[in-house]
Amino acid sequence: MKNFKKLVAGIVTLVVGISVLAGCSNPVADELENFVNVQTVEVNAIYEEITAEAGTWESLESEEDVLKSVKDVLIPKTEEGLKLLNAVEVTTPEVQEIKAKYVKDFEAYEEGFGMMLTALENLDEAMMTESAAKLEEGITALNEYNAALKALAEENGLTIE
Questions:
Q1: Alpha-carbon torsion, ordered 142, 153, 87, 53, to 10 deg
Q2: Could you read off the pLDDT of 6-39 as tens digits, one per residue?
């Protein structure tokens, strides 16, 4: 009977210890860390490819080269990134809000590059201006995403590099 009491006491201690450890976790911090370090790594790499491709435009010699860049690289990469980002599942409202800002960024780029393609194909200056405004919305959304991401990380004791 004495050994049975020790066994029960040991099990109760183990269960209480596990409960205390589980209670110490921060679901927002855990999910944000996973979102940044696992779930969006490929999306971020695609974003870098988009930025690099757009950075080549200064060296392109013709509107046809820009059109090819938009049609063959930027639109497909933006669509791929948006598809991957939409597949990311997050559960905490705080990280859902962060994800929504990143999606907004990609959606603005998708629409802006689509408008740009149409403008280039039709030599439509007005639409080109509209596409530039839509791409500017994407930049603003990215800045909002980055600021919110940094703030949420700091609130939860994480550092964004």
A1: 40
A2: 433 344 433 333 333 445 589 999 999 999 999 9
